[in-house]
Amino acid sequence: MADPEPPNDAETDARPQLPDALAETADLDELMVLIEDPRTTVSETALMAALRRFPESRRLHAAMIARPSLPSGVAACLSTITSDSELTRLLARHEFPSGRFFKLFQQSRNRPSWWSRAMRGSFLLSR
User: Fold this and answer.
1) Is the pTM of this model over 0.85?
2) N or C end of the chain, less CB within 10 A?
């Protein structure tokens, strides 16, 4: 049996994309259509824009965690604003670099409720 052929350029170009500008202006439902589709190419900039605009959306958190891959910067931001159950899924689903991020993830498991609110505020102000 022959190996499957790699996708040709036409197939790669046909993949849906989430433009960075759209992530800054679209409503949540429009963003979710693209973010929930694992075939959609989504840049780290677009994911960060979506998180910045909708930091309280559990649906957005879940869709990002469910993506086939997630940039470490987005994962780090998600770790500061997600629920404990989402954090567990995030850690189980995606690989993380050792060092600073890993320590943050470990510490965030036992975070008090005021901590996540404070981090959410500093996340929003830092952009």
Assistant:
1) no
2) N
